[in-house]
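FIELD: query
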Amino acid sequence: MNSNPSGDPILTAIVKVEEKTETHPLKSQIDTHEVAAGTNNNIGTNSITDSFQENSTVLYYFDKMSPSINIPANATWAQNGVTIAGGHREGDATNELNGPRGLFVDDDQTVVIADWGNHRIMQWKNGDTTNGLVVAGGKAQGNRLHQLYCPTDVLIDKETDSLIICDQWNRRVVRWSRRNGTTQGEILIGNIHCWGLAMDDQRNLYVSDIGKHEVRRYQLGEKNDTLVAGGNGKGDGLSQFNWPTYLFVDRDHSVYVSDDENHRVMKWVEGAKEGIVVAGGQGRGSALTQLSHPTGLFVDTLGTLYVAESQNHRVVRWTQGDKKQGTVIVGGNGQAGGANQLNGPRGLSFDRHGNLYVVNHWSSRVQRFSIE
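FIELD: result
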């Protein structure tokens, strides 16, 4: 995959390391980046601000939680996915993506995608599979306010009509207004090695930190933050993580975390001092009792967990009553570019109809699998 159309030598080296690494693709790229680029201390402080005017009307909270999605316990999905974004080749044209990571599906089925290798956020309207729209970044990699550097996740804050973005290699979380004419963002949180984002029904923002192996909660408009999961160093204990990446917050404010190197998904109930293993945790592997580098995840109103596995190239479902093994719902058929195949899946979400959306990192496309 040509994950570096800009020709940047540092990014080329990083991409080569990640492409060759099977045992730990995430850690290799992060370690390589830190050696090459060092620590950037000029991107703000570890605090959050809220300069947008507040809207007194409370809209849908469809962010990384699912208040209105009730997927039947026995639901099935078409095994052939439809490519709704990218899928042509790796590139920076408006009909292309380059190693995409996280995504967010709005209630009108508009999809916003963290286009990692192109340092931008792309928006694709429902029904338009030809071209997307650059809605943040896209001005080459960099740490100025009009630039992004390998974004990994994005969500829509509907109350302020803005995008909140994990700008990973700039070690910051930024916000871009969705209003026409926006040319730059603002820093919400600095000096954080973020990977995943989520928002609860009170507009608290949750951010995973792969450097500190923890998840913190930030209240918009306040400088204080709260440790909600991890924070006890890298490890495999129930109070620890080893590279926490993507997040999901349910209606009870429990936080679900993809614990990448521990090959498990953890659930932290609000106020808990340790988490509960709700998927995997049996070592890396392809058995239904195991996970291999879990990434994007989603929890429906029944408490059913859906998780993408970047190295098993599949999406599995773990029901609330059976935490011993999952069921493959799509993928698991190799890693080529077929309609029934996934290739390094990362971000995962559902629309309000129950259709499944999966980001394919290595084939630079987003697929939609229709619920049957």
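FIELD: remark
The domain at 76-369 is CATH 2.120.10.30 (Neuraminidase).
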